[in-house]
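Question (not urgent): is this output format expected?
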Amino acid sequence: MPKFYHLLPLVFLFSLEMFSQDLEPRVYANVAKNLNVVAIGYVFTNGNVLTDPSLPITDFTLHSHNAAVNYIRTFGLSNKLARVQVSVPYTFMDGSQTRTNGDVLTGSRTGFADMKIRFGINLLGSPALDKSEFKDFEQKTILGVSLVTSVPTGKYYDDKQVNIGTNRWAFKPEIGVSKRFAHVYAEAYGGIWFYTDNNDFLGKKLEQKPTYSLQAHASYYFKNHMWIGFNTNWFFGGKTITDGVSDDSEIDNWRVGGTFSAPVAKGQSVKFQYHIGAYTNNGLNYYALSLAYQYSFF
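Got this back:
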């Protein structure tokens, strides 16, 4: 069985406020309790994408360099495996928009994005085991739930349409299933993002309807703890309303990608991921490349 310290997922890779677009393999992975994981990562994105998905803008291109620091802690709760994760991202981005009259507008933003906190618990198939007990445990089927909270800590200008922060809270309850088939791990998650109002959007109130998200992952683990994975998600909904007037901003997007992870030393690993839009109806047409390093310890 693969060592537990190589199975913790790196879920900070898209911790900008691209809420429903996350591609996060191994979120409900079975690991030992009392495990600590510190991770740092870099993400480059290019295309029609904003840190706030409620604001698709036509003919808009953004180049974004993003760094994130994560901390994950696992523990036992009623003899079930639970975990909490805190993600703090920092963003450098510049973009341009071609107006209908042919003029090109450019701009840039730099600063902290909104912090994300995830609390999750595996309800079935994943007891809270210490390091000595866990080494002999074989994962089969896991059912887990989690709540992701986006905290409005990001840099925000109330007179700008494009921002790093979103100036509102958001919450995503999610349910996930993970099953092991020899060296293959298959996973599926479903969640809904709920948003509070942004009362300082260009002097107006911005509301957003819930956004629905579905993910699926298939990962193959080699004997040396290296693994590769295929990732896909579908996110839809999220119509926005500005001062009571709804617009044509409802999202219906499908993304696909791949992940490669390899150990570099005991308790240390690196991970690469690439994903791109397979179908998009309204903005959010971009690709993303990421590199991450994690260190796990008790």
